Amino acid sequence: MSDDLKAKVQDLIDTMINPAVAGHGGFVELIDVQDNRVYLQMGGGCQGCGAADITLKSGIERLIKEEIPEVAEVLDTTDHSSGTNPYYTAGKA
Q: For the chain, which domains are there?
């Protein structure tokens, strides 16, 4: 894993992504970067939110790939069925 790539992703999370999702009480945490894949975890208002996948794919992943073209994929490692009041629960589709 490139420490430089991880630092670029973390900077983007700190300066652009977290300020945007903070308006909904959420945050994004960088878990790891391996083989140009970024592993994130969503928390706060983002954990269990019904729009979390849309936020990830249409917002977060798009932004990361635009700003850091060497990123191939962004993956969500969040357990969206846990938390104090998740919108998503296992078994609902």
A: 3-76 (3.30.300.130)
